[in-house]
Structures are given as structure tokens and as C-alpha cells.
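pinned: reference chain
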Amino acid sequence: MIKQTILTLTVMSSLLVLQGCSFSESSKSSSTSSESLTSITSSTSSSQANKKYSQEVSDYTMAYVKSSVANADYNSFAKGISDIAAKAGINNWEQESSTYVAIGQGLKRAGTTGVVFDTYKSNFAHNNAANMKSIQQGYDKRD
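pinned: its C-alpha cells
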């Protein structure tokens, strides 16, 4: 009887240990899934924030161009872009090619063409070849 009781206790404790391992693995798996979901959510949020920033830059560029006179003040344009970037948490917008792509999209939406487009492109890009290329990419981009 004592042997049988000891055997029963041994089997029961073994089962408890196995259930504990299973629970532990289940918790680990659940934790990993949670981390993956957080990563996906964060990535989606970041992507949405980037799209929102680009849309705001494009909208601002279009409005600025449509309302500006022939002697546009490019410093005030840059200040407006700077304000949009700061709101989006971007500290160095001048180094972000996405900013210039969005400017190009705004120039297209404003209906600029030919010499007018080239002038804005050159001035907004500060005659920087890489920035002018990004503006052109935005201008050429299909909606």
C-alpha cells in the first residue's frame, strides 16, 4: 500500500511538472506572439505616419504654389515644411528624400509645368542634384 501511494504521488508530481512545462512553453509562445503583434502594429503606425507626413507636405506645396506670386519667398516655404516636419517628429527634413518626393507631388498637383516647374524644383531643392531628382520622382509618380 505504501509502495502504491508513493508510486501514485510520483506519477502525480511528474504530471504536475509536465503541465508546468507545458504552461511555461505556452506562455513563452503567447509572449512571442504578443511581441510580433506589437512590432507589426508599430510598423503600421510608422507607415501611416510617413504617409500622413508626405500628404501634408504635398498639400502644403500645392497650396503654397497656387497662392504664391512670381517672386515667391522660398524661406517662408521652407519654414512651413519645417513646421510640418516638426509636428511629425522629423528633425532633419532637409535630409529626407521623402520630403522632396512629396514636394514633387505637390508641384504636379498644383499644375506646374515647364520653366515654372523647373524653377520651383531648383529653388525648393536648393540646387541640390539629389533633392531635384527626388522632386522629379514625386512629380513623375502616378497616383
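why pinned: The mean pLDDT is 78. The helical segments are 2-67, 74-87, 97-109, 114-124, 129-140.
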